[in-house]
Amino acid sequence: SDHMENIYGYLMKYTNLVTGWQYRFFVLNNDAGLLEYFVNEQSRHLKPRGTLQLAGAVISPSDEDSHTFTVNAASGEQYKLRATDAKERQHWVSRLQICTQHHTEAIGKNNPPLKSRSFSLASQGSANSPGVQRRPSQNAVSFFSVGHHRLPTGKRVPIMQPDHLVDVREMMSQAEGQQRDLIRSIECLPVSGHLTSLDQDLLMLKATSMATMNCLNDCFHILQLQHASQQKGSLPAGTTISWLEPKISLPNHFKNGAAQNFPAEINKPASVREEQSIAEPCQLTREPEEINPDEELEDISDDKEDDLGAVEEQRSVILHLLSQLKLGMDLTRVVLPTFILEKRSLLEMYADFMSHPDLFIAITNGTTPEERMIRFVEYYLTSFHEGRKGAIAKKPYNPIIGETFHCSWRMPKSNVATDADSNFPARSPSEQVTLSKDTEGQAELDYYTVKFVAEQVSHHPPVSGFYAECVERKMCVNAHVWTKSKFLGMSIGVTMVGEGILSLLEHGEEYTFSLPCAYARSILTVPWVELGGKVNINCAKTGYSASINFHTKPFYGGKLHRVTGEVKQNMTNMVVCRVQGEWNSVLEFTYSNGETKYVDLTKLSVTRKRVRPLEKQGPFESRRLWQHVTESLRDGDIDKATEHKRALEERQRNEERLRAETETPWCTKYFLKEGDGWVYHKPLWKSVSAAQTQQTDTN
């Protein structure tokens, strides 16, 4: 019910370059669907300085900082606003989106867009068409100003006649045909010479003209809704419309008939959805394979992603792709061009986050709950630098459903920090504990082994599960991640939805954690990666928690890749450690006793993972599955890489259709669905629990 209440308060509004930002008092009128602002709260009873109708508006949080957002009205008017903090921005954005959806659906209910909205290439019009021979009253201003300003009481907005909309539709049909002719003319130009089809100005014209026509189509749809609303009059008293949470629709972005070089994946019948099949309880029908770490060899591949030339050469492809995307569009079902791909699967990228196994194993060596939490935070923050290969923002392969990746690390025991080796605050003798001797029977080994397995458990939505364990130290981590990517204009945002749990069985502790969002910035020039968002790490048993903020770069000034955080004891609310720095450079840890520790991520030793040779891998293991794509990318043969990638994707679609026709649910190999998450089928905590039970029975 609180969603329906009017809200008000001060926001900063950007006026112009001279005046800049000014505080104004804003009022969201949910009943009228209006956003009004006044000079201050005292002048609220006067006429508002400005008013925006929210029906058909677009509310867009800025991806440059956490405070700014814009309100783009259907009339074309825009308010650029700034809240005092991220929480207040989210409050305003959520309420504005809910109000906007409420009033947009209210006028669109029972009034679908005209069938002729999908324009035909043949209907280009002529000089004698009604669209050209307009009456003076049929100018563009009259069309686009209707209903966007409040009129004095007693005056009625003139009702737009149906023939006016027909004329507009015909004019837009003509513009659509001319725009297609323009694209066809550009694409028919030679690839070399004075004026070529790859001319940067022409490519920009091609991209912006397509985006302009998409925008005009949306505006025309809004005009249709307004006309229907005015014809029907206002909603009768007592009419109620359900208030919904904000959502972004997935528009058909290829409706204008542009060449589909990168088509969206083939839509499945509405009755057949992968989400339904993965939600059904299912036993493992494919026998899990036990990987012998002794068969794995140290990885010698070194695929650095630092080639910037390919991006410049393929700029035309990026421009063409951008011309078909819309702000906020979900990119899950959009096939992206091959040249932006890394030479590894997303599943292997998750493994690369474990490239400092010494820090991972050292977590359980902490002698107190406080120290173990701090060690986990240190390991967590050092994992992202190696997980991202190179400075350029390339994208790992989208895993095929059923794809798996296995690897392991061997870490000399002498390299793993004990309490005596650490820079953490000294503990009193009463706090010292003796670690259990759990490596009995393995004394002949002078190294620890960390084993890793990942599996793509779902295709739509794309969900990956991964699990790692160190049996000798009785510790394991289980996680599932759903990657949601959206187009944000000149950047792409990826939200990592899911949760991970680190289990320290020696101490009976579980640490839950989440992952930050990732952004690919400057996608038209040299794209680069940025992390953003707040993540939390919690241990319910000990009462310690950590709050970590990955800061995105502000629009003006500020540092790149900045991260801050703190570890505290929840019961006393006492901060025991603070951290600041850059997640890909130097981190500074400051402890409650005044000591400071610096970690230079660029100088941390990286332990190479061990992977089975290709000939010993199964057909659905990542490196063998994508080997031809990877080889083609290494050779710089983008066309060949695209062919191999398309063949894999087509095979996946065919298998998906076959499962749909036979009503056969997909069954995973290593992970099982438990509630909203996915859990490894044979986690370490089960075997340890079973061993303890057996020992108790024996005694």
Q: Could you characterize the architecture of this molecule?
A:
- 27% of the residues lie in helices and 25% in strands.
- By secondary structure, the protein is α+β, with helices and mostly antiparallel strands.
- Among the domains are: 7-107, PH-domain like, CATH 2.30.29; 297-416 and 446-687, Porin (Beta Barrel), CATH 2.40.160.120.
- Strands 11, 12, 13, 14, 15, 16, 17, 18, 19, 20, 21, 22 and 23 form a 13-stranded antiparallel sheet that branches. It has a seven-stranded antiparallel sheet with strand order 4-3-2-1-7-6-5, covered by helices on one side.
- Helix 3 packs antiparallel against helix 4.
- The longest helix is centred in the N-terminal third of the chain and has 33 residues, at 200-232.
- The radius of gyration is 29 Å and the shape is globular.
- The model is unreliable at 110-161, 234-285 and 424-443 (pLDDT under 50).
